[in-house]
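Exercise: predict the fold of this chain.
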Amino acid sequence: MNKRIVIWTFILVGIGIALFLFYTGVKQKNASSNQRNTQLAFKLIQTEAPKVEIAKQVVIRNEAEWATEIGTKTDISFTKEMVLVFFMGTRMTGGYSIEISSVVNLVDKIVVSGQLVSPGKNCIVFQAINYPYLVFTIPTSNKEIVWNMEGVVRDCP
């Protein structure tokens, strides 16, 4: 009888320790994943940008890069913010736009998601060559920027 009590005590203590370790591991994993996948605030900037004929994305981390890519003066503090620019390239009519829906900070990269909007068949657009672009800032980071942009056609009423 004494042996049985000792064996059951070891089994119950073992199960208790296993449950404790499992619970604390899950709790730490959830806490760390919440810290890693956070939404970053972004701020749109109204500025003149050069006419870029091909679609490209630019990450600007300092004033020298700003001068090269944009060419105007800026009061952005590159110690606190960096600039992301999406150039849509040459479009033969108006009605095109770029929309950012989220900027997510992951462990090893920052993912920018949004839409490249094209006018639908029923839209009345101006007939002139244009070069749509969007300039915005996010907090400074050395992480890789990954663009996840979806092309959509938006019909007009």
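Check your answer against the key: Strands lie at 38-39, 43-44, 56-60, 81-87, 97-105, 109-119, 133-139, 144-154.
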